[in-house]
Design goal:
Length: about 650
């Protein structure tokens, strides 16, 4: 290990975890907030203070952990899929676990020239275009991925994902692992949390996902058309319900505060969102002035009844009905659409426990997690509880900077601690007992350091009633010295932790490209993919090589083309300068894995067609000359010869 190369290539800065800890706290102190955190440092025990002596960047000591038990050997398959957001890359990713191997990147809100997402006519239609055919948006920020449910567990049908930048929701089909719909939410900026419902609140027979709920983080003047620019008292946020099938918005709720994460109940009755900025401030320091923000609960059946009864209003040009869910308009629990449960300062993340009984809302600026009981929230809505705060059944001190919580099948919660750079395991029953005053009850049962600064963390199947208590994955925001250096942009670490025993065991460091926010871990049995398309699903398919031809209507030229290894259906075609050319390409190969590509030099055209798939592109032939249209995807021993000439006459 003492080669000069190693010394230069792997800088070790053991103090950085501590450094980050201190700067983060100093930053908060600047905003007048240090009191709570310092208090926590004193009270939460030595492990919670981020002891500088812990040399977390040292390689894990072997002996305790048999790493080979988590290896996936050549030719073996992983036991889990992990679907992960790609943050500001705008995509969704599929990994295998426990190996951490990256299988696929699914372009959603971004342009991807490997598959031609944002280049082909079909993908542009899904992404949305301006009048001139150009893409309306080609950037996105995916945070949260959640699949559709049946009977409290994943049904393998769809995956829903948000775009925080432009306020859009997208759906990915889990059979083809491709995006099939994108919708822009009206009057929403900073669409952060997203969660499908698990059953209908009223109709017993509907035990599957029919709605998707969307949190809204940035409050804006409504409508945001230039009025009230500098009057934050006029700003507000909207909670949106989307139809899971059509992906169209059904209704919205006007609320106080800024929402980020969303969770839903197992009985379909409630959705909730953690809220910060109940101050309604427009500036950083204003957003932290009050001691308590809230976790807001939405009574879905009541909201839908109010929408049906027409107790709605509309904002700007949007035709989506909006109901008033603000605090002042919902003072009477018996008719309230919303319930604001006070939680400590600027909470982040809310997760429903697999038994359907609780919601854990992390403190972020408070060293606590707030445990809210589902049945008590329903009681409040029935008018049987005095205060919304009476729904809180525990608030254990767990450490600094708690963000997200996963659950196992034994009544334990696992929360990421951003500032402490740890995962803390705490027991729900013990937390409840301790809250009731039982001094002997110790909520925190284990802690483990992660490298470094975890954001999201989640357990295998932990957001279903079938939580299996096997793995926790910690998506960390910094990797520092864990991997070979690759220049200023570091990879992130996704660390796999075995949670099946009493002690958490760190079993693998996986490098991930920036910046995964949230993922889910699903056993492979729950996913059924299609490996070859059905040619009949494409109305514009060119079903036989003999149908290849050139059709001209004025200046519009359509090229009907097929691919079959190692040739395209036409050797060449001729168009004139100024023509609008559409190329429709069907891959006639039926063999699984036999994908062809199609690129045109100087025309920015590049896409693939999978077996039996059809795609098209449209462009202006504005550059005369000879252009070799070639297959980009290695398909055959004669792959390099697989090309046709496009002749553009001057
Ligand atoms: S939220 S850590 Cu979308 Cu926590 Cu990313
Ligand atoms: Cu077809 Cu390479
Ligand atoms: Ca980072």
């Amino acid at each position: 290990m003492n080669t000069p190369n190693n010394k230069i290539a792997i800088p070790r800065d053991l103090g950085r975890r501590n450094f980050l800890n201190k700067t983060a706290i100093a930053g908060l102190a600047g905003a007048g907030l240090s009191a709570g955190l310092v208090g926590c440092n004193k009270t939460a025990g030595p492990a919670a203070t981020g002891s500088p002596a812990v040399a977390t960047s040292e390689p894990a000591k072997s002996g305790a952990v048999d790493y080979s038990a988590y290896e996936v050997h050549p030719g073996q398959l992983d036991t889990y899929y992990s679907f992960s957001s790609g943050g500001h890359s705008g995509e969704v990713r599929i990994y295998g676990l426990p190996s951490g191997r990256l299988f696929k990147r699914i372009p959603v809100f971004n342009i991807d020239c490997l598959v031609g997402w944002g280049i082909t006519n079909e993908s542009k239609k899904i992404m949305g275009t301006n009048a001139d055919g150009s893409l309306k948006y080609f950037t996105g920020d995916t945070h949260h991925v959640h699949p559709s449910y049946t009977d409290g567990t994943y049904n393998g049908k769809h995956l829903f994902v948000n775009d925080k930048i432009h306020g859009r929701i997208a759906r990915v089909r889990l059979d083809t692992m491709e995006c099939d719909k994108i919708t822009e939410l009206p009057n929403v900026q900073g669409f952060h949390g997203i969660f499908p419902d698990k059953r209908d609140p009223v109709d017993e027979k509907i035990n599957y996902t029919t709605r998707v709920f969307c949190g809204n983080e940035f409050h804006i003047p409504q409508p945001n058309d230039g009025r009230d620019l500098n009057d934050p008292s006029k700003y507000f946020c909207l909670f949106t319900c989307i139809d899971a099938e059509t992906l169209e918005p059904r209704w919205q709720v006007k609320v106080d505060g800024n929402m980020d994460l969303v969770a839903t109940s197992y009985d379909g009755k409630l959705a909730c969102s953690n809220q910060y900025n109940m101050e309604n401030g427009a500036h950083y320091e204003d957003m932290m002035s009050i001691e308590r923000d809230s976790c807001i609960f939405f009574n879905i059946a009541r909201i839908e009844a109010a929408v049906k009864a027409g107790k709605t209003f509309f904002i700007g040009k949007s035709k989506v009905p909006v109901v008033d869910g603000t605090k002042s308009a919902n003072a009477d629990p018996k008719t309230a659409l919303t319930c604001y449960v006070p939680t400590p300062k600027n909470p982040h993340g809310v997760n429903a426990s697999p038994d359907g009984k609780y919601y854990a809302c992390s403190g972020k600026l408070s060293p606590t997690a707030t445990l809210i009981e589902h049945a008590l929230v329903l009681k409040w809505f029935d008018g049987e509880l005095k205060e919304p705060r009476d729904t809180v059944v525990a608030e254990p001190e767990i450490g600094l900077g708690p963000l997200h919580t996963g659950f196992d099948n034994k009544g334990n919660a696992y929360t990421t601690l951003f500032l402490d750079s740890q995962i803390v395991k705490w027991n729900l029953e013990a937390a409840i007992k301790s809250f009731k005053g039982d001094k002997a009850a110790k909520p925190v049962v284990d802690r483990i350091d992660v490298q470094y600064q975890p954001g999201h963390g989640f357990t295998s199947m932990g957001e279903t009633k079938n939580a299996d208590g096997k793995f926790f994955l910690s998506d960390n925001k910094f990797s520092k010295d864990r991997f070979l250096p690759v220049g200023p942009l570091h990879p992130e670490t996704a660390q796999l932790i075995d949670i099946s025993g009493d002690k958490m065991k760190l079993v693998a460091d996986h490098s991930v490209y920036s910046e995964p926010h949230d993922s889910i871990i699903i056993p492979r049995e729950l996913i059924r993919t299609r490996q070859v398309y059905d040619i009949n699903e494409f109305p514009n398919a060119v079903k036989d090589a003999k149908e290849c031809r050139v059709e001209r209507k004025g200046k519009k030229v359509t090229i009907y083309l097929t691919s079959q290894a190692p040739t395209f259906g036409l050797r060449e075609w001729t168009v004139k300068k100024g023509d609008e050319v559409t190329i429709i390409l069907t891959n006639l190969d039926k063999v699984e894995d036999l994908t062809h590509g199609f690129a045109i030099p100087n025309y920015n055209i590049n896409f693939i067609v999978n077996p039996q798939e059809t795609k098209s592109v449209t462009f202006k032939a504005d550059k005369p000359g000879v252009y070799w249209c070639y297959c980009t995807n290695f398909c055959h021993a004669l792959h390099l010869e697989m090309r046709s000439r496009m002749l553009v006459e001057a």
